[in-house]
User: Fold this.
Amino acid sequence: MQLNKLITNMNNQNQQPLTKDELTYALKEERGELVKLIKQEISLPIGEKIDKMAGQIESIQTHQLKQDTRMDKMEERFIKKSTEDKNEILNSNDKLMAELKKKNEEEAAHSLSHIQIKNNLLNHEHRLQALEPQPV
Assistant:
């Protein structure tokens, strides 16, 4: 600002060149004002950025908490469903095993019946052979 003022004064007055001292003084003033402006510009956005980041962190934490809750509920539903499915499978297997046991018992009884019939036939054969006359 000071530098612009000096240049304007130089143009409006007798157009004498600026002295080194005038120019140095004006540049120092400009530099000081620039530093103040830069500090203001930097400090305000940093504070705003910190606030914004704090808000974002809070938002992320809230989102993470929601996700954790959601995952916990999903895990509970998965465990419940897995338990139900396991029970259904075990109950189904129990029914199948009961049917298989019944079939095995029936088969064993049937096999025993065949063995008894075979033994009776053999017994009848022996008795018939004993009763039949032997060829001479």
Notes: The first helix runs from residue 2 to 12. The chain has one domain: 2-101. Residues 2-101 form one domain. Helices lie at 2-12, 20-131.
